[in-house]
Amino acid sequence: MRTKIVAGNWKMNKNLEETESLLTELAAKRPDTDAEIIVSPTFVNLATAVRHLESSIIQVAAQNMHFAPNGAFTGEISVDMLKNIGVETVILGHSERRSHFGETDAILKQKVDSAIANNMRIIFCFGEELEQRKSEEHFTVVEEQLKNALFHLEAKSWEQIVLAYEPVWAIGTGETASPEQAQEMHAFIRKTIAGSFGDAIANSVSILYGGSVKPANASDIFSKPDVDGGLIGGASLKADDFVEIIKAI
Ligand code: PEP
Question: Which residues are catalytic?
Fold first, then answer.
């Protein structure tokens, strides 16, 4: 049975004091749930977050990492640095990394390989842009993104993969894919994985939806059978909103 997950992507928000205060509030207000709860503060606050949540079931993820083990990559963070401070999950392929920082499928494939080799769990993000949906290319785009970065993996590596379908037109825009659009794409993703890796793997991978999920729309989206949770941006920065979204799962 696959896991339900609600993950918050804090992006470049929250300084140290704000991070501690949001974590304290979240730990106090967290509802009882079987779902995994993950937060991803910025790099400089990851070690603090791990320490802060030591006795909590809330997990900590990084928002990115470099593919090289170490070396002359000014400003970058390696998988070993993350693991060394107790971070076991990394978000890769977020559309902001793809569009603002030029992360291609080929770069992401290298990051995926490094994370897998180092036993790191990956929340792998992908999704089409508005023009691609309008021209009905969204299924092809998503299939290509998945195939280019993930389909070379061995079957057992899929245990380390969580997928996050995030249509770019819905990220931070207030516009959400309808529950039906999300379900249609998630079912397509599962079918595509089944085609290459079989039903058992396709049915065990968690597929999150991301894109303007809020307390008001979370239940409808999460009620769909192939939606296993959410990757939440803006609404994860307010404890009460994030808690309401967790309750919706
Ligand atoms: C995201 O950045 O992953 C995201 C889904 O953002 P938002 O919820 O703000 O649309």
Answer: 94, 166
**pLDDT range class, residue 164, cuts 50, 70, 90:** very high
Q: Is 234 in the pocket of ligand 1 (CB under 6 A)?
A: yes
For residue 23, which of 46, 2, 6, 4 has the smallest C-alpha distance? 46
Ligand 1 centroid to residue 31 C-alpha, Å: 22
Alpha helices in the chain (DSSP H): 16-29, 46-52, 79-84, 95-100, 105-117, 130-134, 138-150, 179-197, 199-204, 215-222, 239-248
210 Cβ inside 6 Å of ligand 1: yes
**Atom of ligand 1 at shortest range from CA of 230:** 5
Beta bridge partners of 90: 62, 122
Distance CA 159, CA 78 (A): 21
Q: Which ligand 1 atom is the nearest neighbour of the CA of 214?
A: 8
Is pLDDT above 90 for 172?
no
The 10s digit of each residue's pLDDT in 22-75 is: 999 999 999 999 999 999 999 999 999 999 999 999 999 999 999 999 999 999
Per the prediction, the chain carries an average pLDDT of 97
207 CB within 6 A, ligand 1: no
Distance CA 102, CA 110 (A): 14
Task: Provide, rounded to the nearest whole percent, the portion of the chain with pLDDT above 90.
Answer: 96
Would you state the pLDDT for residue 142?
98
At 226, give phi and psi (nearest 5°). Answer: -100, 5
Would the CB of 212 count as within 6 Å of ligand 1? yes
Mutation pick for ligand 1 pocket among 13, 95, 126, 171 (CB with most ligand atoms within 8 Å): 171
C-alpha torsion angle, residues 9, 14, 18, 20 (rounded to 10): 50
